[in-house]
Design brief:
- The structure is a single chain.
- With 533 residues, the chain is of the alpha/beta class.
- Helices cover 54% and strands 8% of the residues.
- The strands form two sheets. Strands 1, 2, 3, 6, 7, 8 and 9 form a seven-stranded mixed beta sheet that branches.
- The longest helix is centred in the middle third of the chain and has 44 residues.
- The protein is globular and about 80 Å long.
- It starts with 8 loop residues before the first helix and ends in a 31-residue tail after the last helix.
């Protein structure tokens, strides 16, 4: 069995550096099924959806345990090589293989034979290579049709080793789901799917000469695996309505892991897609007299009603939790006082550290603002996180270096004190922002008239009834989600459940224990997405 390539020092540096940076930028990174990753020495092609440009590759590199795979050889578009930028150096130093894309060469034919030979050589050494079969990063929530390059690569490697009865190669698909890919302290789910393993003996249909139908069928299997563990939606409207459905079905505070949350949301998206696709096909049918089924009409109406309900909540600045569980004026006033006091306390102790964070925030804000001007949403929003990571890394290192230089006499202390202070400030600021956001939501609740609140509550009761019928009867979801997920839900980090950690009810140094997976480091709830047109 091959032993795999030796890990270059530059790759180790990149992995350590960006594991640190990613854990600062994203509030929670949950990795599921890491035990399914083939070990070093087993040829493996890692394939994932590609919604977040270079960040996706860095996320996969840092998500794979180094004890399982010592290295993940990446691929990237050839235009990112040979430039005098940190991103270009980062890509090249990590042993990345350049791939030419037709769109970068005026849609002319391109020759990737050299790149394919490098990938095949790496696989035969027992390495893992990473390929994004969509061909390009994209902001749209739909997974694009996959290119056949991975299937053809498997076919070529198997054919080159057809005389070795012990040779095998695996395709490990991975589904990546960002709650809000470009927002600071949002959350990410990385789910590895069961690997597909191929050998010359068991898969003669993939040996050359191979039929194109076999290549297409394997590519479709990959697409289905990736799509089955993430939110694959035809539009952002479907995602927004599905998240609202999840919040009503499993109210705020339900002890759901991030994986459970994504799977429930995906279930609602798939239900809405099925109904919508049915109606589109019927509209295009020649026989216009065909009636829509009752279920189709009900599902589409439910989706539109969820959108209208979310719009009303966003208009008034209130949360579904406050509609589901009404509070008396005395309770609202008391909670407002507690939240405001907690905010003031946390913000006060955060002020010294926020002075250190200010250059980082200003630098990334200016860089991202200028980058957004370079193109439309669909061409820029998938790279915002990448810009924030790189500029945040450099500005953060500059702040740290400046503090050490200004305190040379006590540099041995400030070298460690400054990063620790910045981390604690970030944690305090997260809870301070959350407290202020809760305070504002309660304050806005007082501004809504009683008649309006009663009307919104009646709308929610109706939506809850219809959603529970859809979830339990049609989709087969648990009828008591709050109890079910406590007893049977995922145990991934993000919901602190151990005896030692649960004692810290109001604060945890390691991470914010979110009640809402939609939460980011903002003074308002992020429920909308930029329009693509």
């Amino acid at each position: 069995m091959p032993k795999g390539s030796t890990t270059p020092w530059s790759y180790i540096l990149v992995r350590l550096l960006f594991k640190f940076v990613l854990k600062i930028f994203y509030g929670t990174i949950v990795v599921e099924n890491a035990d399914l990753i083939p070990k070093t020495g087993q040829p493996c092609i890692v394939c994932a959806n590609h919604p977040n440009s270079l960040t996706d590759a860095l996320l996969l590199v840092t998500s794979m345990p180094s004890k399982t795979r010592n290295m993940l050889r990446l691929t990237a578009k050839s235009t990112q090589f040979g430039q005098r930028t940190f991103t270009s150096w980062l890509i090249e130093s990590a042993g990345t293989v350049p791939i030419k894309r037709r769109k970068d060469y005026n849609n002319n034919e391109v020759d990737n034979s050299q790149a394919m030979n490098k990938l095949m050589d790496a696989l035969e050494l027992g390495d893992a290579v990473c390929v994004f079969p969509e061909g390009a990063s994209r902001y749209h929530p739909t997974i694009a049709p996959l290119k056949t390059g991975v299937a053809r690569l498997v076919s070529d490697v198997l054919s080159r080793n057809r005389d070795d009865p012990n040779f095998s190669i695996s395709i490990l698909t991975c589904s990546v789901t960002y709650m809000h890919r470009q927002h600071f302290r949002s959350d990410v789910l990385v789910t590895f799917n069961p690997p597909m393993t191929f050998t010359p003996k068991d898969n003669p249909e993939l040996l050359t000469p191979v039929q194109y139908e076999e290549i297409r069928a394997l590519t479709e299997r990959m697409h289905q695996q990736i799509s089955s563990r993430t939110i694959d939606s035809p539009s952002w409207e479907f995602v927004r309505s599905a998240k609202m459905a999840t919040r009503i079905y499993a109210p705020l505070g339900t002890l759901m892991s991030l994986g459970d949350y994504v799977r429930i949301t995906r279930t609602f998206v798939e239900a809405f897609k099925a109904s919508d696709d049915t109606q589109k096909s019927k509209r295009s049918a020649e026989d216009q007299s065909i009636d829509f089924t009752k279920e189709d009409n009900e599902l589409n109406q439910l989706r539109h009603d969820l959108k209208d309900y979310q719009d009303r909540l966003a208009h008034w600045g209130i949360k579904d939790d406050r509609i589901a569980h009404p509070l008396s004026l005395r309770t609202i006033a008391m909670r407002m006082a507690i939240r405001l006091t907690w905010f003031i306390c946390l913000f006060t102790i955060s002020l010294p550290g926020l002075v250190l964070w200010t250059p980082v925030f200003i630098t990334t804000y200016i860089a991202v603002r200028n980058f957004k001007k370079t193109g439309p949403v669909w061409d820029t929003f998938d790279e915002i996180a990448q810009y924030k990571l790189v500029y945040g890394l450099f500005s953060g290192l500059s702040v740290w270096a400046a503090c050490v230089l200004f305190t040379l006499r006590s540099a041995t202390i400030t070298t460690f004190l400054v990063p620790a202070m910045m981390w604690m400030t970030l944690r305090w600021t997260e809870d301070a922002v959350s407290a202020f956001r809760a305070f504002m939501a309660l304050a806005k609740l007082l501004c809504v008239g009683k008649e309006t609140l009663d009307e919104i509550r009646m709308t929610r009761r109706d939506l809850h009834s219809r959603l529970m019928n859809l979830a339990v009867v049609t989709l087969g979801l648990p009828d008591d989600p709050e109890k079910f997920f406590v007893e049977h839900g995922g145990k991934q980090k993000g919901r602190v459940r151990s005896t030692r950690d649960s004692g810290a009810k109001y604060f945890s140094v390691r991470r914010r224990r979110k009640r809402d997976w939609n939460e980011t480091l903002r003074l308002y709830d992020q429920v909308d997405y930029p329009e693509e047109n």
